[in-house]
Amino acid sequence: MVNGAQLIARGLVSAGVRRVFSLSGNQVLSLYEALDREGIAITHTRHEGAAVHMADAWARLTGEVGVCLVTAGPGHANALGALAMAESGESPLVLLSGHAPREHVGAATALSGQAKAGSFQAMDQVALARPLSRWAEVATDAAQLPSLLQSAFARARCGRAGPVSLSLPVNVLESTVPNEGAHMAASTGPSDPPLQDARPFREIVAKLRAAARPLILAGPSAARSSLHAALVAFCTHTHVPLLVVDHPRGLTDPALGRAAQALPWADTVLLFGKTQDYRIGYGAALAGGCGLLQIDPVKEEIGRYRAPEIGIVADLKAAVAQLIEAAHAPDAAPWPGSDWAAEVRELVETPVFSASVEVGDTSDGIHPWRVLDMLAQVIDERGGREVCLVFDGGEFGQWARARLAARLQREAPRHLVNEPSGAIGYAVPFAIAAKLVRPAATVVAVAGDGAFGFYAMELETAARAGAPILMVVGNDGAWGTERHLQRARYGPDRAVATDLLPARYDLLAQALGGEGELVTEGESLRPAFERAYAAVAAGRVCLVNARIRSVASPAGAPP
Ligand SMILES: Cc1ncc(C[n+]2csc(CCOP(=O)(O)OP(=O)(O)O)c2C)c(N)n1
Fold first, then answer.
1. Cα–Cα distance list, 75 to 8, 123, 168, 292 (Å)
2. Ligand 1 pocket, 474 CB below 6 A?
3. Which architecture, in CATH terms, is 199-349?
4. Residues of 510-535 as b/e, b for ≥16 C-beta within 10 angstroms?
5. Which residues pair with 419 in a beta bridge?
6. Is 451 near ligand 1, meaning CB less than 6 Å away?
7. Is the CB–ligand 1 distance for residue 430 below 6 Å?
8. What is the spatial distance between Cα 545 and Cα 548, in angstroms, rounded to a whole number?
9. Is any ligand 1 atom within 6 A of the Cβ of residue 480?
10. Domain covering 2-177: architecture
11. What's the CA-to-centroid distance between 207 and ligand 1, angstroms?
């Protein structure tokens, strides 16, 4: 006989899962036992949201499905905000949640589950997760678990990738079924994309070739290593400029320089897995006469706001292979090298901020540019073979993207950002997962003091899990982005409820098992970053708490 928890653990093993991110709870202890016995590592966190963020970053960096495990009811509810971010980041992950006993499946409502069902931590978990995930189900029988798990993995990857939620009632996990029925077939290998007619791809390639100013705008999946390399190869061959739009500020992401200026000039735009969202004015930001082409894994996305001349529903990896084949067809005319490609490149490489502007210290703190300039210098000098950067939202994060733009353009798949969700607060858990994926890399996370605070306790997780990360906090004692908006909209003295204390996050890091540096003047930046680098290289988590002045980032406010 085998119990439900063992079935799940074995299924994960056969799916190639090596690590899950989790926070414990009564309803999932049987799974802890089974995972450990199957040799699956459990990285355990201080908040369920952090476990989801870690699985999300793991998926983005490895190309595998990330797996996280939380307890029933409040544990599941705590996970949901982070699930929304994975959803918008197109990150394939499986959220496994404990659940009240199966008798109470369906009896609980989201708001008054305990009252209605009468059992501990009962909630309608499927109803809660469904709008934030690609698929949400609850098991009612241990024998179903293998096929449910298989469906979960398949749904997380198919079409536009994203998170799925599988709730596991405590007594389903603990009930037993005969061993013979327990064959796990949770294959997670990507299924072969269906063969597709090559003609529309050839037509798209012909349109791009005939255009004077073609442009490809790619969605978040194109920033991942597997797809990115192929897309870059296509664009290098064809001289069609590629802009990967993976930031909530879209083409005004400071890492893309002045790229936004190119958009109205483009006469043919291919949206490659890029939705017609606010970042391109729902299609209206393209010139009126611009020929629109679209390739997307989801049918409903084709022509959502603006009808394309050619629209193809396709798996993006298969699609890029088709595009490459069409571009290399033996009878194809050579691709015209174009000045336009050079013009777009120049715009992308034009910094959004000139360091010739006064960035000296004032009594309000160090200019954020100066902090990040020194960080960039130290990374260049000491970075080592591989550097992985995590950018949180908020102004300090945008300043960092502006200063580190060249590196970001060069090595897109190695660096992580929140993508269209615009959520802040993920820097520490993302960095921890990055370090676990790439132990040899130097992992540097950058966040404002507000965003850092969301998962500050995860520094303890980093120290405990052996994930020495360098956390750089731009401490302006404020929720800066919002405070700048308040002042601009309502008057210079109308900053309401957006202040924070200039807290000693460096001491917090020390208290949580790491090291900390407080920097209050520009002159101290270099030695502080050098000490921090040395600490991280020696296996210690380190936080640099830089007192900065509150300056709006060069890209301006988000929408
Ligand atoms: C989850 C979430 N909560 C709130 C916001 C709104 N928001 C965006 S930026 C920001 C302030 C960020 O402040 P901080 O992290 O200190 O960075 P700063 O702008 O000061 O550099 C807030 C509250 C958000 N985007 N996401």
1. 19, 11, 13, 44
2. yes
3. 3-Layer(aba) Sandwich (3.40)
4. bebebbbbbbeebeebeebbeebbeb
5. none
6. yes
7. no
8. 9
9. yes
10. 3-Layer(aba) Sandwich (3.40)
11. 42
pTM over 0.85: yes
Per the document, the length of the chain is 559
Taking the centre of ligand 1 as the mean of its atom positions, its distance from the CA of residue 453, in whole angstroms, is 10
Domain with CATH 3.40.50.970 in the chain: 2-177, 368-547
Can you tell me which atom of ligand 1 is nearest the CA of 447? Answer: 15
In tens digits, the chain (559 residues) has pLDDT values of 999 999 999 999 999 999 999 999 999 999 999 999 999 999 999 999 999 999 999 999 999 999 999 999 999 999 999 999 999 999 999 999 999 998 887 766 555 545 456 788 888 999 999 999 999 999 999 999 999 999 999 999 999 999 999 999 999 999 999 886 555 554 444 454 566 799 999 999 999 999 999 999 999 998 888 899 999 999 999 999 999 998 999 999 999 999 999 999 999 999 999 999 999 999 999 999 999 999 999 999 999 999 999 999 999 999 999 999 999 988 777 787 789 999 999 999 998 887 666 677 777 899 999 999 999 999 999 877 789 999 999 999 999 999 999 888 888 888 988 887 889 999 999 999 999 999 999 999 999 999 999 999 999 999 999 999 999 999 999 999 999 999 999 999 999 999 999 999 999 999 999 999 999 999 999 999 999 999 999 999 999 999 999 999 987 655 5
Q: Look at residues 223, 546, 541, 553 and name the one whose alpha carbon lies nearest to residue 411.
A: 223
Q: Which residue, by CA, sits nearest to atom 17 of ligand 1? A: 448
The verdict on the CB of residue 43 being under 6 Å from ligand 1 is no
